[in-house]
Amino acid sequence: MALSSKQVHACVVLVVLCIAARTAAAWGRIDDGLEVNWGRGSHGTVSADGQVVSLSLDRNSGSGFRSKDTYLYARIDLQIKLAPGNSAGTVTTCYFLSEGSWANHDEIDLEFLGNSTGEPYTLHTNVYINGTGSKEQQFHLWFDPTADFHTYSIVWTPLHLLVLVDGTPIRELKNHADRGVAYPSWQRMRLYGSLWNAEDWATQGGRVKTDWSLAPFVAQYRNFTATTSSPGAGGGYYDQEMDATAQQAMKWARGTYMVYNYCADSARFPYGSPPECYMP
Ligand SMILES: *[C@@H]1O[C@H](CO)[C@@H](O)[C@H](O)[C@H]1NC(C)=O
Ligand SMILES: *[C@@H]1O[C@H](CO)[C@@H](O)[C@H](O)[C@H]1NC(C)=O
Ligand SMILES: *[C@@H]1O[C@H](CO)[C@@H](O)[C@H](O)[C@H]1NC(C)=O
Fold first, then answer.
1. What are the UniProt keywords, alphabetically (predicted)?
2. Can you give the pTM of this predicted structure?
3. CA angle, 267 then 251 then 201, to 5°
4. Could you say which of 119, 152, 220, 256 is the most buried, measured as most Cβ atoms within 10 Å of its Cβ?
């Protein structure tokens, strides 16, 4: 039987739709890897199809999740869509945190600081090693992070820590342990996400407060992947230095979108910036 061009067209559309549907559901249930551990049910929920974790914040509570596994080196990728409109005072997070004592904890932070309508979110990053932080770098983004999901990644290997936004590296902290600079390498960490209120400091230094009449504020997370592998196991990311293209991309992102860098804050470090700042 010969098909008319209209029928062929209909078939093609169907095939394309099917492929699109398969891709959309290509990842497993997000709660296979993550569990809501703060505000569960009331403020933190998983969609019925298991694809999306929604965190909400109102006057009564924020909410959060954590990974079921802990990691000693991993690459994690997570897609996040932030609360739109006036999100002043809110903080949406995605971070690694070690399990042991707080005084000696390791932490790798991504915190999205909300803003008033039309003003940009700030992506605040920091790293704590053995209880000591003070490695803040902040960025604006080159897109509206509330309009759609974007992929945020943390790569933590024995070589370096990398933060990527939609695949573009924005920050690298190399392992200079051989030169006496502490590096997170001895404690397992768990991944956490949360939406909470920090109106006393988050937005424009705390001057802009949360407008609670707009609550609940909602952030959504989907497509969580954690890649773990050992050196030489074909894990790709594990032994990889940044190539020239990645370095160029990072230079662009930092040159254009970085709004604070502890390494350049001479008022804070009058006797010279910390050693990792000038190690190649
Ligand atoms: C972590 O800090 C403590 C002091 O609080 C120190 O005794 C310990 O050696 C440090 N651990 C590492 C692995 O650097
Ligand atoms: C909020 O908007 C102001 C003005 O555009 C900007 O300076 C600031 O970095 C933004 N982010 C935060 C968290 O205040
Ligand atoms: C889900 O995440 C993986 C790992 O980052 C990525 O390769 C894939 O493209 C993502 N899927 C979609 C539909 O965005």
1. Apoplast, Cell wall, Cell wall biogenesis/degradation, Disulfide bond, Glycoprotein, Glycosidase, Hydrolase, Secreted, Signal, Transferase
2. 0.90
3. 40
4. 152
pLDDT at res. 47: 96
Q: What is the pLDDT of residue 228?
A: 87
Which candidate, 56, 55, 22, places its Cα nearest to that of 222?
A: 55
Type of residue found at 169: P
Question: Is the model's pLDDT at 23 over the cut of 80?
Answer: no
Q: Which single residue is written with the structure tokens 């005072």?
A: 89
Contact 107, 126 (CB under 8 A): yes
Q: Which residues contact 201 (CB under 8 A, 6 or more apart)?
A: none
Q: Ligand 2, residue 138: give the atom nearest the CA.
A: 9
Q: Which of 42, 64, 67 is nearest to 55 (CA)?
A: 64
Domains and their CATH numbers in the chain:
5-268 (2.60.120.200)
23 lines ligand 3 (CB under 6 A): yes
